[in-house]
Design a protein that fits this description.
Number of strands of chain A: 4
Distance between the termini of chain B: 67 Å
Largest sheet of chain B: none
Oligomer: heterodimer
Strand content of chain A: under 5%
Order of helices and strands of chain A: EHHHHHEEHHHHHHHHHHEHHHHHHHHHHH
Number of helices of chain A: 26
CATH architecture of the largest domain in chain A: Up-down Bundle
Shape of chain A: globular
Order of helices and strands of chain B: HHHH
Radius of gyration of chain B: 25 Å
Structural class of chain B: mainly alpha
Strand content of chain B: under 5%
Number of domains of chain A: 2
CATH class of the largest domain in chain A: Mainly Alpha
Distance between the termini of chain A: 75 Å
CATH superfamily of the largest domain in chain A: Cytochrome c oxidase-like, subunit I domain
Largest interface: A-B, 65 and 44 residues
Helix content of chain B: 55-70%
Helix content of chain A: 55-70%
Strand order of the largest sheet of chain A: 1-4
Chain lengths: ~725, ~60
């Protein structure tokens, strides 16, 4: 009998705070998604307000769902389970509160700045540099709290859920810092340090692993904790959970390049990304089966307990998404699926099914615990389950149909060898009915979320909140143990374990990243590709502000169907001055990599004013504010200086005078061109810069006699 | 074009081979290690979430039916 038994208290306040934030931000994030979805078949739903137009609302939706809904959900689960698995209160109540309020402030900052158009344009990393710094600080606070709690634990061994939490903390820190390297030119604006191919590789190394280490590993930790709790039985195979963990974190990091198949990324990196993506099936399915088999002999409970129902669907959705992901990484499948809505369907299997349902399951279980009562209405929870499941189906199935239809129509040739649907608009108009169905699905899912909020509110009302739960455990013996094996060392020494996890994720990271740095000096520069003119720089920044890349790619893949539609395929050397790269990942409109010179300036002017005046049936929103808003030329010197610092060869002193003259002269030329199309415009409006930028896109290469690799010895 | 970029990196063909070797070494080692873990230890580990140290009668989990 150990006499060193200590009595201590678990902090439930922090768990409740994060749980409430999860619900509130979940509703906000999903509502933003619904608004974006409606605009895809009813563009006027933006009420002609720039702040809630698709290009700005889409990043708000993705950020809110990922970092606000899932982020708060993750903290809820970690703060509850970590204390209990470590048999210790959190390391510091101050850090817990700092983590909570810091995270909520970051979310509020995102909700304000993204609609205002402050965005880096890098997907899921859109927030600008001051917010990036805030994220780093809050994440460090969370990590210190996490490791501090682990170090003062009273339980000798670290359960597998804690391993997943550790991997999350260290990897997200690495990803965030590397991808957020940017050169500020204003208090809320910056340019990415990387350009073109390099920027794309870093971005998708980040984007892919943000899915892995923000949406997957922490939630797997939650699954390994809350599923045994709810089913009141240990996990099916602890051995399998060990293999799941190491297999997953080791392989995941290698697979990033599967987001860039058939782009200007080196073929070698593409193949590596594909192979490792397929290998990911093994650990992922090991984990899924481990979760489902935990319920062996307890399936009768699943029928009665809505919490387990949600959990079963969550784990199944995890299995579906992790089978589909590798399938989409196969180059031949990807050639069809990339840029289509198929990808959107895939991520929503993960977001709605895996993250959403697991969060619901956890919250239904947690609230009665925190308020020492029973769930207010099991019936309402069951309604929520069926409504959400139906909503998910109505969301995902039409979007699959839309995605495959788009892919097939884009690639369809007539028997005479011409594109069957040469007008891109035809293909998108064809799937608009699917967009309508998707919005119904989204509405149902959101409705379910509101039902849960009400049910949990009533649950809280019916009970009494327990701010702290008293617990007892023996102190860990200090000093060296005898006869410890490797496994004991691993589970007993968190720092050693953390170092090993970092090594595991860095091996894949380094193998991906080293060639990227070597590429920099070896990229075949094309003599005629020149930096953007000052007016085009301003236009490009407007393109970024409006989120144009949410619907328009700038990357023509080397397929006949693409070169026939858009022109010559994109070369790596064409985006060497693109800070950030704007290849995009989705086409709701045509690719713009070679847009320059396709239409007269006046066409672009009219099209931005009202897309349906030039393209009947178009689903693009109106951008009439570009016609009236004055162009910000005051910040031009700061922008050019920042670009020079990241490597764009503007001559010294160019920004003091010559740049302004160049800008005025080019703006005057655009105004002249517009007159030819019977359009009168002032030279100092935003539309002038945007038209100049669009007319430049992809034109340099046509002037070039030949591509000359500079670095050839 | 891919070859233009990548062929200028010395010894690039080794990258793929090294990657696969690291992967197999890591995986084999991990599987052997996981396979050799003792049953009773694994059971104790799997039971960890079910005991959170709350005092009997104190645990809210136990107040629920």
């Amino acid at each position: 009998m150990n006499t060193n038994v200590e009595t201590f208290k678990y902090d439930n306040r922090i768990v409740r705070a994060f749980a409430i934030a999860t619900i509130v931000w979940g509703i906000v994030g999903m509502a933003a998604g619904l608004l974006a979805a409606v605009q895809l078949f009813f563009p006027e739903a933006n009420l002609n307000l720039q702040f809630i137009t698709f290009g700005r609302i889409r990043p708000l939706h993705t950020n809110a769902v990922i970092f606000a809904f899932v982020g708060n959900g993750m903290f809820t689960g970690i703060y509850y389970s970590l204390q209990r698995l470590c048999k210790a209160r959190m390391f510091s109540d101050f850090l817990s509160a700092f983590n909570f309020w810091g995270w909520q402030l970051i979310i509020v900052a995102a909700a304000l700045t993204l609609p205002l158009g402050y965005t880096t344009s890098k997907e899921y990393a859109e927030l600008e540099w001051p917010i990036d710094i805030a994220i780093t600080i809050v994440w460090v606070a969370f990590s210190v709290n996490l490791f501090g709690t682990i170090l003062k634990r009273r339980e000798k061994h670290m359960y597998v859920a804690i391993w997943f939490y550790i991997a999350t903390a260290v990897t997200v820190a690495v990803l965030h810092i590397v991808n957020s390297m940017e050169m500020p030119w204003g208090w809320m604006k910056s340019y990415s340090m990387y350009a073109g191919v390099q920027d794309a590789l870093v971005q998708w190394w980040y984007g892919h692993n943000a899915v892995a280490f923000f949406l997957t590993t922490p939630y797997l930790g939650l699954m390994y904790y809350f599923l045994p709790k709810a089913a009141n039985r240990p996990v099916f195979s602890y051995r399998l959970s060990i293999i799941h963990f190491w297999g997953l974190i080791f392989i995941y990091i290698w697979a990033g390049p599967h987001h860039l198949l058939y782009t200007s990324l080196p073929d070698w990196a593409q193949s590596l990304g594909m192979v490792f993506s397929i290998m990911l099936i093994a650990p992922s399915w090991g984990g899924m089966l481990n979760g489902l088999l935990t319920l062996r002999g307890a399936w009768d409970k699943v029928r009665q307990d809505p919490m387990l129902k949600f959990m079963v669907v969550a784990v199944t959705a995890y299995g579906m998404a992790t089978l589909e992901g590798p399938a989409l990484s196969i180059k031949s499948v990807n050639s069809l699926s990339h840029y289509t809505d198929w990808t959107i369907a895939h991520v929503h299997t993960g977001a709605l099914g895996w993250n959403g349902f697991l969060t619901f399951s956890m919250l239904y279980w947690l609230f009665p615990q925190l308020y020492r009562t029973k769930l207010w209405s099991i019936k309402l929870a069951n309604y929520h389950f069926w409504i959400s499941l139906l909503g998910m189906m109505f969301y995902i199935v039409p979007i699959y149909v839309a995605g495959v239809t788009e892919g097939l129509m884009w690639k369809q040739f007539t028997k005479d060898g011409f594109l069957q649907y040469p007008n891109f608009l035809e293909t998108i108009v064809h799937v608009v009915p699917m967009f309508r169905l998707r919005a119904i699905g989204g509405t149902l899912y959101l409705l379910g979320m509101v039902l849960m909020a009400y049910n949990l509110y009533r649950t809280a009302k019916s009970g009494k909140f327990e701010p702290e739960t008293e617990a007892q455990a023996a102190l860990l013996p200090r000093g060296r143990e005898t006869g410890v094996g490797f496994h004991r060392l691993l589970e007993g020494k968190p720092l050693f374990f953390t170092v090993l996890s970092i090594v595991a994720i860095l091996i894949g990271g380094i193998v991906e990243v080293i060639p990227m740095y070597l590429i920099k000096s070896n990229i075949p520069t094309i003599a005629n590709v020149k930096p953007y003119t000052p007016l085009e720089v301003l236009g490009r920044d407007l393109y970024i502000r409006e989120g144009c890349l949410g619907c328009h790619s700038q990357m023509i893949r080397p397929f006949r169907s693409e070169t026939a539609r858009y022109g010559d395929y994109s070369k790596a050397g064409e985006s060497v001055y693109d800070h950030p790269f704007l290849w995009g990942s989705e086409r709701k409109g045509p690719d713009l990599a070679r847009e320059g010179g396709k239409y007269p300036d006046a066409w672009h002017f009219n099209h931005m004013d009202d897309p349906r005046s030039t393209s009947p049936g178009s689903i693009m929103p109106r951008y009439s504010w570009l016609l009236t808003q004055a162009l910000d030329t005051n910040s031009l010197p700061a922008r050019l200086k920042a670009l020079r610092k990241v490597g764009v060869p503007y001559p010294d002193g160019f920004e003091n005078g010559p740049a302004q003259q160049d800008l005025s002269a080019q703006a005057a030329r655009v105004v002249q061109d517009l007159k030819l199309g019977a359009v009168t415009a002032a030279p100092d409006r935003e539309i002038i810069a945007l038209v100049a930028y669009l007319q430049r896109l992809g034109t340099d290469i046509n002037l070039a006699p030949a591509a000359t690799p500079v670095a050839v010895k | 074009m891919f070859h233009n970029i990548i062929s200028n990196i010395d010894g690039v063909e080794l990258y793929g081979i090294i990657s696969i070797c690291i992967f197999f070494a890591f995986f084999t080692g991990m599987l052997v290690w996981a396979g050799r873990l003792k049953k009773n230890h694994l059971k104790a580990m799997a039971d960890l979430p079910l005991d959170d140290g709350s005092r009997p009668g104190q645990s809210p989990e136990k107040t629920q039916s």
